[in-house]
Inverse folding.
């Protein structure tokens, strides 16, 4: 029972911190502050992954999202002169923004309805927590990646290659 | 290890973060902040996939998250290159002032 209480408290603290960080990301005027709170959000989500027994994805989340992608974002923010958004108060929304907020509220209601009406219907798969613990998380994922998902895996490598080429072409100076 | 938090709470947290990200995309005018909000939404979807795959004893969701992260990395490289290009050409990355493709 003590483990359960610990699990719950970690979940509640992490979830609230993640939501708080998400709110801060969209309300800070300085993009650097937004980026820092986004890193906090990613780290909290990594902890949630650990609670869900996915150590591999938690590590990848910290390395790829909180490390590589956010480093790139902060690099570009620094490159492009941090200009704070003009001093208009956030309260003064344009009609388009109000409409967007209403649409997001509808979307949110739909999301909540969608997850609450039937929580995870579907058949249980073969990878129970005991099986994963016995096999090893990374080994299980790798086994799946190189057998069942081999074609998407190769396509992902092509996608990364195209991404590299695109970034090089885009940032090349025209001559 | 038995998880004691029902999956619905993870899904609700994920939905909340996704909705906050969508609000950010719609109300912010700085292209980089919009980009960060999109990353946040992707990450929220990943949380949903991981929750489902954990509670359904499957690893397909984990592999999907792996692919989503690949796409996010490629998107970051290309998107930020586009921002640098835009800033070089027009001196701003405010999405209100970038209306070259607007009719």
């Amino acid at each position: 029972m003590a483990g359960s209480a610990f699990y719950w408290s970690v979940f509640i603290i992490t979830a609230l911190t993640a939501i708080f960080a998400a709110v801060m990301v969209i309300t800070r005027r300085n993009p650097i502050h937004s980026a820092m709170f986004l890193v906090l959000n990613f780290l909290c989500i990594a902890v949630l992954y650990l609670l869900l027994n996915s150590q591999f994805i938690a590590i990848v989340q910290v390395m790829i999202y909180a490390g590589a992608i956010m480093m790139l974002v902060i690099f570009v923010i620094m490159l492009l002169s941090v200009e704070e958004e003009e001093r208009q108060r956030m309260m003064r929304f344009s009609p388009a923004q109000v409409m967007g907020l209403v649409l997001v509220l509808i979307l949110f209601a739909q999301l909540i309805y969608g997850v609450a009406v039937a929580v995870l219907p579907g058949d249980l798969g073969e990878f129970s927590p005991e099986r994963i613990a016995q096999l090893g998380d990374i080994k299980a994922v790798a086994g799946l990646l190189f057998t069942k998902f081999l074609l998407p895996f190769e396509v992902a490598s092509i996608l990364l290659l195209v991404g590299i080429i695109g970034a090089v072409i885009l940032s090349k100076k025209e001559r | 290890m038995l998880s004691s938090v029902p999956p619905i709470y993870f899904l609700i947290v994920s939905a909340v973060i996704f909705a906050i990200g969508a609000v950010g995309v719609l109300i912010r005018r700085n292209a980089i902040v919009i980009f960060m909000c999109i990353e946040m939404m992707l990450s929220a979807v990943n949380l949903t996939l991981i929750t489902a795959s954990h509670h359904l004893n499957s690893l397909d969701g984990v592999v999907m998250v792996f692919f989503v992260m690949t796409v996010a990395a490629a998107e970051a490289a290309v998107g930020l290159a586009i921002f640098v290009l835009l800033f070089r050409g027009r001196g701003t990355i405010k999405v209100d002032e970038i209306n070259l493709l607007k009719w």
